Amino acid sequence: MEHMNSFGAGAPANTTARELEAALQRSGFYPRLVADVVNDALDGQESLSHLVHLETHFERNEVHRHITVLALTAEMLVITHVDDHQLDESGEQMVAQVSTESVPVSQIKSVVLSYIYAQPQDYKPSDPARELTLAIAWSGGQRVEMGPSSCGDPDCDADHGYSGTIAQEDIALRISAEAEGLQAVADAKAFARALRAVNTGAVNAGSSHAPLPGSKFPVFGARLGRSHYRR
Predict the structure, then answer these.
(1) Where does residue 101 rank: exposed (0-12), middle (13-18), buried (19+ CB within 10 A)?
(2) Euclidean distance between CA atoms 37 and 81, whole angstroms
(3) Angle 188-69-99 (CA atoms, 0-180°, nearest 5)?
(4) How many CB atoms lie within 10 A of CB 105?
(5) Are residues 66 and 55 in contact, defined by beta-carbon separation less than 8 angstroms?
(6) Which DSSP symbol is given to 88?
(7) In this predicted model, what pLDDT tens digit does every residue of 103-127 receive, in sequence order?
(8) Residue range 23-45, pLDDT digits in tens
(9) Which residue among 126, 127, 142, 166 is least packed, with the fewest CB closer than 10 Å?
(10) pLDDT band at 17 (very low <50, low <70, confident <90, very high)
(11) Distance from C-alpha of 185 to C-alpha of 178, rounded to nearest angstrom
């Protein structure tokens, strides 16, 4: 029987659209709603690669979940984020907050992967990373981390001022093998490779006709609640 889905009626079983729909179903986080939002943001473009990241946070007696979906097309990186909030103590009344942003791949300035390996002294080429953080920058947004400086003397109580680091990122996703499984880490790495390949191709193709300073790229959707998925 032919399967009809929100990512394209009658799509073959081996299409990326079907794989994306399956990933949303596995997440269990309002899959029909999220699928419709992602499909609307794609606006008919074919998804070449995707990454679905679900996080759960506990705050007092409340459980907060949010999902971030990255969908890559030949021209755009489509970012969809959905939070849910309960309006009453029993949790019977819920509301979902949705934001989407579409970024031209030619506008992406950096794709950074940070890895954590356990027992590096025993590392073998077959050992997978235990954790991966994917950071993507396109608008020039920066994250600053500051902390007190020290001189290395444990008995010194002098004020050495502050030191810190500045990282350029618009979105950062942390994927842990312990929490999400080794396959989730591998999927994030594969998505980053696909994004770099499309981004590099787009930049090279546009190098001979780069936009004039101050020109605007078309951005579809609203930049809402980026702080929800920015770490």
Answers:
(1) buried
(2) 9
(3) 145
(4) 22
(5) yes
(6) S
(7) 999 999 999 999 999 999 999 999 9
(8) 999 999 999 999 999 999 999 99
(9) 126
(10) confident
(11) 10
